[in-house]
Specification:
single chain; Rossmann fold; 2 domains; elongated
């Protein structure tokens, strides 16, 4: 089970790989982009849970990427930590005023970066930093790998569990079938779109048994969301 996805936007390959390695060792999933265009393409494909964003990038600067992400409805609240060699107070203030949630000055230790990532996620999206995800009467214990609703345990297949975990980490957000395929099944597997629909149906039956209200909303021509009825 992979943890929250962190996008590392850094043009120094050795540093980018070092950050990705240490994030994965700490339980996060990671993705690397070497410039602004690659970062924006990656975010268009799948919005991460947090972005580690280098200030000085070839082409589009980190500040400009931050500005663009804050203007987009789907990324307006995306946690962003700026990485930079600029340590002067006016530069730090400029980064924060542009919309960054935190600011780390180079050189830094990877342990500090991981700690800051945890801290920002705990502050901005507390569910992702904890050991449990909750929505209404739904409860997922990440450590024990168990799901319950109104205190009654629900048995799910591994795929159904991953799908529900993705919804619980992003309540209210509508995901298309292709987005769910990437997030739950991954890029490497040849899975058909109808597999998503079939898994949604099974998850719905498991969650909504015994007359409970339906917490999975179908959005016509768009996809699915975890939402209160």
């Amino acid at each position: 089970m992979s943890g929250p996805l962190v996008l590392v936007v850094e043009d120094e390959p050795a540093l980018a790989q070092l950050l990705a390695y240490n994030l994965e060792a700490a339980g996060f999933a990671s993705q690397v982009a070497s410039d602004g265009d690659e970062a924006l393409d990656a975010i268009d494909d799948r919005v991460p849970d947090l972005v580690l964003l280098d200030w000085m990038l070839p082409g589009i600067s980190g500040i400009e990427i931050c500005r663009r992400l804050r203007r987009r409805p789907d990324t307006a609240n995306l946690p962003i930590i700026m990485l930079t060699a600029r340590g002067e107070e006016p530069d730090r203030l400029r980064g924060l005023e542009t919309g960054a949630d935190d600011y780390i000055v180079k050189p830094f230790s990877t342990a500090e970066v991981v700690a800051r990532v945890r801290s920002v996620l705990r502050r901005v999206r507390p569910a992702l930093a904890g050991q449990a995800l909750e929505y209404g009467d739904l409860h997922m214990d990440l450590a024990a790998h168990r799901v319950s609703r109104s205190g009654r345990e629900i048995h799910l297949s591994p795929t159904e569990y991953r799908l529900l975990r993705h919804f619980l980490a992003n309540p209210g957000r509508v995901f298309s079938r292709s987005q769910l395929l990437d997030a739950v099944w991954g890029h490497d597997q040849e899975v058909e779109m109808r597999t998503v629909d079939a898994t949604i149906r099974r998850l719905r039956r498991a969650l909504n048994g015994q007359g409970r209200s339906d917490v999975l909303r179908t959005v016509r021509a768009e996809g699915y969301a975890l939402d209160r009825p």
